[in-house]
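Morning, I've got a small favour to ask if you have a moment. I've dropped the whole record in just underneath, so have a look.
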Amino acid sequence: MRRITEAFVAWCADDSAAARFERTVVQGVLAAVAVGVTTGEWGASFGTAVIVAVLSPVQAALGGKGEEHHA
């Protein structure tokens, strides 16, 4: 169990573009499943997934973690 936990924490701490994209996808999938299961509204579930996929990169950019740095 410790190995799984450490791997998960390392993945969460990884600041590479690939890891950020992976986390965005996972967040969207989890949100879609949560909405679909709790409400039975799979259309709303898809909408939630799209919103999460858009908001995550925006939140990262607002937090100063954006890829673009201008001198």
Summary: The chain has a mean pLDDT of 80. Helices lie at 2-13, 17-39, 42-62.
